[in-house]
Design brief:
The chain has 221 residues and is an alpha+beta fold. Helix content is 47%, strand content 27%. The protein contains five helices and seven strands, in the order αααβββαββββα. Strands 1-2-3-7-6-5-4 form a seven-stranded antiparallel sheet, sandwiched between helices. It is elongated. The termini are far apart. The relative contact order is 0.13.
């Protein structure tokens, strides 16, 4: 019938709906896979960057010391007379960060003080290597800043025979000695009602003991 044929021609059959759904799903899967691949690439790049920096820091830090000793053990590890002098003062501060291997991974601090006797302050600080610099270079900068700060107020005297570099300062009725051993900075301050020779003797004994303890604990690490 001519009329019916014209009606069918005016309204063609709908497209294959199943094929449309498949194409949409395929497009969605491609988008998801593309996003996953992008995330994987970004994570891999970040991992390579972090790993590269860690590897460079490890390379820069070869030869650096790994541990600092317990500062509270210094007086009783050396001269008996110095030990008795320090023992006459109550322990006020005992601190250490990240204990490991009989010492500490980062820092250690102990302080004794008594109003009528004086005070002893002992600190160890270990500086870590970065991707561009060794821990020894970082520690050298720290000691340089400390020396410049002290020199702005008092006389700073360089010392030889102690670590890689050292200096002393007399101020406020006491003496302060700073020493760098590779990537470790040692600080000892002693105040007492005595002369400079005795201040130097006590501090020198404590510092030499401290240096020996740094060497010993890292030889065992």
């Amino acid at each position: 019938m001519p009329g019916r044929c014209r009606s069918e021609a005016a309204f063609p059959a709908p497209p294959n709906q199943g094929a449309v759904v498949v194409r949409r799903r395929s497009r969605g899967v491609k988008i998801i896979l593309s996003l996953v691949l992008t995330v994987v690439v970004v994570i891999a790049a970040l991992g390579a960057f972090v790993g590269g920096r860690t590897g460079l820091a490890y390379w820069q830090g070869r030869g650096d010391y790994e541990l600092v000793p317990d500062a509270v053990s210094v007086p009783k590890s050396g001269d008996d007379d110095v030990h008795r002098r320090v023992a006459a003062m109550p322990l006020q501060v005992k601190s250490g960060y990240l204990p490991r291997g009989g010492g500490f991974d980062s820092s250690s601090w102990a302080m004794w003080s008594h109003d009528r006797v004086g005070s002893v302050d002992i600190k160890f600080a270990r500086h870590r290597a970065t991707a561009l610099r060794s821990g020894a270079d970082v520690a050298a900068d720290e000691l340089r800043r400390s020396r410049a700060h002290s020199a702005a107020y008092v006389q700073v005297t360089p010392l030889s025979g102690l670590g890689d570099e050292a200096f002393e300062v007399f101020a406020n009725g006491g003496i302060t000695v700073n020493v760098r051993m590779r990537n470790i900075v040692l600080f000892i301050e002693f105040t007492a009602r005595t002369d400079r020779a005795e201040l130097r003797r006590v501090t020198g004994t404590l510092m030499k003991t401290s240096i020996g303890m740094v060497e010993k604990i890292n030889a065992q690490a």
